[in-house]
Specification:
Blueprint: E1 19-21, E2 36-40, H1 44-55, E3 59-64, E4 75-79, E5 85-89, E6 95-96, H2 100-106, E7 116-118, E8 124-126, E9 131-132, H3 143-151, H4 157-162, H5 165-168, H6 178-183, H7 188-194, H8 199-211, H9 222-234, E10 242-245, H10 249-263, E11 267-270, E12 274-279, E13 285-289, E14 292-296, E15 298-301, H11 305-313, H12 321-328, E16 336-343, E17 354-360, E18 363-368, H13 374-383, E19 386-392, H14 401-415, E20 424-432, E21 456-458, H15 471-489, E22 497-499, H16 507-513
Parallel strand pairs: 2-3, 2-15, 3-11, 8-17, 15-21
Antiparallel strand pairs: 1-22, 4-5, 6-10, 7-10, 8-9, 12-13, 13-14, 16-19, 16-20, 17-18, 18-19
Helix pairs in contact: 1-15, 2-15, 7-9
């Protein structure tokens, strides 16, 4: 992957060192008969692929098995006990300023990103009483690291001195795919132990990152953890503050983008699960959904882990034996819980819109939705109450779900005591287990965007991209990469992409990092 620099006017963030991957060259649009492309999956990755292909004139059919777009960020209506209708979802997601390609997708329908609301802080609280904040931490490395140490009650200069410098050196110059060569064979928890990262700071900083993958740090690859540290902290000057949609996901993001796609001729098929794919001798693919088969020239599989495994297993002629075995071996992260509570009284005025927690049993964070989401704020005003959301990540698969829900609620009362006597006017509990797991040693076995079939691409946050991207940004980036790969084969111009800098920012620190080739 070749990186370059773009003109200042083309930057999408504040980081002057953000890298640009130039669009593959070609015609602006298909000059004559355009190919038919099926995009399977209406989450971020599928929406990105469908958007770019349709903009270039391809005939796109977008299949989504659920009734609405958005994938793991979808929303759906639910009727509350008071008779009103609310939009339920799988919960809070942070739209970081480093998500250049996701933001580029959203700008198709919202050029100023007015649908997003800035949260003023990203506070992290430990049960021991320590609390970190990123509001006053400088955003540009290395000042970001020094500022965090200077301001943090959990990570001081003495902690910095006690660390194992040789083991920590790989964090100073994270590159993809080299970071996987160095750290993919190590568990995130073992890596933190080896560098002697202080326990409280480990919970409040690194573990927050690892749980963004809905994974236990004992199972997560240390390479993914190091990549997160680079993206959000030492490699980018965008900082750790983030935005959130000011309304529920469908209204703010996906309904407008769905209308945009339809305006570009995309046939959006929600409630349409693809059952199998059959390559056709001589070219093309038959895609079967709902018992009906249609011929396409190309295909993008933008599915979650279980969905991809299922379609590939039901399509025995797709790919080769090695590729199929790697897809079949993909794993999902442990279950997670989202509890949304409609309370009959507000939480205290000083509570943040989002709070990360550690040491509070299963509870990983608390969102006060009425602080930033318009629909929730309207309900809270009418009822003089609050809408609160609790997350519990990486729950043991055999755990008693009612017990976990009760424990998370109990920890809410501990963190925000004023909620103890609040009456729960309604509640929704969403249990899911469909996020990809990035286990120790798993990187080389993950599928890439390209497959053995030249007209079939894979997209999603499970994909190996060899770019410094993760989570929602990996999904958006891989969707554009999938479309770029197809467009390149047809001689049509692709999409310019952006990433955080692909290496450590300081030549001195990069030189030091070169000395730490072994994390042990």
């Amino acid at each position: 992957m070749r990186y370059g620099k773009a003109a200042a006017g083309g930057r999408r963030g504040r980081d002057r060192r953000a890298a640009v991957i130039a669009a593959p060259a070609g015609r602006d649009r298909f000059p004559g008969q355009a190919p038919a492309v099926a995009v399977v999956g209406g989450g971020i990755a599928g929406l990105a692929a469908a958007t770019l292909l349709a903009e270039r004139g391809a005939h796109v059919t977008l299949h989504e098995r659920e009734e609405s777009l958005g994938g793991r960020l979808a929303g759906w209506p639910t009727k509350l006990a008071d008779g009103t209708t609310a939009t339920m979802s799988r919960g809070f997601h942070a739209f970081f300023r480093q998500y250049y390609n996701l933001r580029g997708l959203l700008r198709r329908v919202d050029p100023g990103l007015d649908a997003l609301t800035k949260l003023p802080d990203y506070p992290l609280r430990h049960s021991a009483g320590l609390c970190d904040s990123f509001a006053r931490v400088p955003r540009t490395p290395p000042l970001s690291g020094l500022g965090f140490v200077a301001l943090s009650p959990t990570f001081g200069w003495r902690d910095l001195i006690r660390m194992n410098p040789r083991a920590a050196l790989p964090l100073l110059d994270v590159r993809v795919p080299e970071v996987y060569d160095r750290l993919d064979a190590v568990a995130a928890d073992d890596f933190l132990t080896r560098i002697r990262f202080p326990e409280a700071a480990r919970h409040l900083a690194f573990e927050v990152f690892s749980r963004s993958f809905f994974a236990d740090p004992h199972e997560l690859s240390a390479a993914e953890l190091a990549l997160m540290f680079h993206i959000y902290f030492l490699g980018s000057s965008e900082g750790l503050l983030f935005d959130v949609p000011g309304e529920p996901f469908p209204q703010a993001l996906w309904d407008p983008l769905g209308r945009y796609l339809e305006g570009h001729g995309v046939r959006v098929r929600t409630g349409s699960a693809v059952e199998r794919v059959t390559p056709v001798p001589g070219g093309g693919l038959d895609v079967t959904a709902g018992g009906r088969t249609a011929r396409h020239d190309a295909l993008v599989l933008a599915l979650d882990t279980g969905g991809l495994r299922g379609v590939v297993a039901a399509s025995p002629e797709l790919g080769d034996a090695d590729w199929r075995s790697r897809v079949a071996a993909l794993r999902t992260a442990p279950p997670f819980l989202v509890s949304r509570l409609w309370l009959d009284r507000p939480v205290a005025a000083g509570r943040p819109g989002f709070l990360g927690t550690s040491g509070y049993g299963p509870l990983d964070n608390i969102s006060v939705l009425d602080r930033w989401e318009g629909q929730a704020a309207g309900w809270a005003r009418r009822n003089r109450g609050a809408v609160v959301e609790l997350h519990a990540y990486a729950v043991p698969p055999g755990a008693d779900r009612d017990a976990v829900q009760s424990a998370a609620l109990g920890q809410l009362h501990r963190v925000y005591p004023e909620t103890h006597d609040a009456r729960i006017m309604d509640a929704r509990h969403e249990w899911r287990a469909d996020c990809p797991l990035f286990p120790v040693g798993g990187y080389r076995h993950r599928p890439t965007v390209r497959t053995p079939h030249p007209s079939v691409m894979v997209a999603g946050d499970l994909v190996r991209t060899e770019l410094p991207v993760a989570l929602m940004e990996r999904a958006a980036t891989s969707g554009f990469l999938a479309a770029n790969a197809l467009l390149t084969g047809w001689g049509v111009r692709g999409q310019t992409l952006w990433t955080v800098p692909p290496a450590g920012r300081s030549a001195t620190l990069r030189g030091l990092a070169a000395l730490g080739s072994d994390p042990a």
